[in-house]
Structure formats: structure tokens, C-alpha cells
Amino acid sequence: MRDRHRWLHRIARLDPVRDHVEIHRISAGFEFPWDYTRALEFALFRTYCVPSISALLAATGEFRRRPQKRYDDTALLMAEIAAHGYDSPRGRSALRVINRAHGHYAISNDDMRYVLSTFVHDPIDWISAYGWRPLHPHEKLAAYHYYRAVGTRMGIRDIPGTFDEFKTFKQRYEESHFVFAASNREIGDHTIALFASWFPAPLRPAARAGVRSLLSPEMLRAFGMRPAPPLLGAAVRAALHGRAYALRFFPARTESALARMPGNRTYPGYPAGYHPADLGAPPPGPDVPAHCRRATPSRPSPETPGG
Length: 307
Fold this sequence. Notes:
GO terms for molecular function: oxidoreductase activity. The protein is mainly alpha-helical.
């Protein structure tokens, strides 16, 4: 058990403000890599309950044409930043790809702030429910400071100044913006279909229902989806709790899972032979409506935080 908690002891000795990059790298890459991946999947899924976000995503057509590539690009770019640090050469390259992609579209600062808030708080909520150990307070604060620094380098303005203020912003944004829209349902259906496609065909109906079983009532209403059967939801949660209990007896990881992700389906063998600059969506095509485009595509360079 002492070996199992070697990383936790390391985290306890670090400062969550000064050492937030290292703490987040340990937490996401060594202690909870599977949980962070699942939590960030559902964090992005959660943002599709906001009609202004889902409408823009529907207009780009990426979810309809290339859902797996969009998923892999997002996951790998965020993992590159976490694995190497946002100010490392690979981290800056990943941020340039993200900023260039966002810079083509008319995205509100509030929507950007909201998406960023889910990256901080949804993994914390997931791990609190399904992690093999509770998060150390340093891990929670480090996640906030890490994503605040990333958000600054993405040109996001007015990020709340404390962990608790950011959580309050997230809760209030959801209360006022989670409403049903056809675009929510469209993007939600594409996302669930993507998740289900990772399973053998006979299991895909159960996988779709399993995803719905993990959605809150507010999300189900915003997507216009029916709840999953209660027994299935109980079985899914029991399986997640059982996995967490079993992991308590595993040895500590000795190699980070970040930026390796052998399960991605678009870039086999990543990161061998790839660079963050190879990732990302193409510029918007002619079918993207003019009101969804930014008049002058631009985002601040990650080398100059805040623009």
C-alpha cells in the first residue's frame, strides 16, 4: 500500500499553485488516466446541452462527417499539453492548433469559459464518485490553476479568480443555458453513436443506454433523451465502483498514460511519427454559415498569454 500511494505522497509535498503542471500531470497521467479520459468525454458531452455550442458544432459538420477524428484530435491535443506542459515546445504547438481551429469560428467568450470550467470540475466530480481514492486538495486546486493557465493561453478572458468562483460560474451557466434545442439532440446522438461504435455490434444498444444512464436529469432534458432503465444505471454505477475498489490493490503506475493513447483510432501508434501540428480540424468549408465564422480568424499566440 505504501507503493500504491507513492504518487499521492509526492502530490502532498508539492505546492498546488507553483507546481500545478506537475501535480496535474501526475493525477491525469499516473493516478487516474482512465477516469480523466472518461470524465473529459462526459465534460465535452455536457457542453452540448448549451444550444449556442451545439448549434456551432452542428454547423461545422465535423460531428456528422468525422466524429472519431474530432474526438481523437481533441483528446490527443489536450493530452499533449498535460504531458509536456503548456509552455513546452509540444505544448505550445498543441495550443497553436487549438487556437487556430477556434479562431475560425464566432465563439463567445462565455461559452469558452464554460467549456473550460467543465474541464476543471467534471473530472473532480467523476473521480469523487468513481475514483479508486479521493482526490487530494492539492489535485483539485492544481486542476484549477492548470486550466486557468491553459485558458489564458487560449485567449479566454475573465476566468474566475478562485476554484470556488469557477464552480459557481459553471453551476449558474448551466442553470441559465441548459435548454432543449434540436442541435443539442443532433450532436448528442452523434456522440452517443460514436461511443457505441467502440463496442461490438450486439452490445451497441446497451452501450447507448449505458451512456444515458450516466447523464443527469438536466442533461437528459436538454438533449430531449429518455432516461435509461434504472436497473441498467445501477449496474453501470456498480461496475464503476467495483473497478475503483479493485484498483486500490494495484501497484502504482511507473509510466504516464498521457499522450500515448494507443486506443485512438485515427492515428495508430501515436505519438510515434506524429507531431501536435499534424492534428486538428481543417478550416471551415463553404457550407458553414457566415454567422458561424469569425470575420477575421485570430487567436492569441500561446507564447504570449492573454493576447
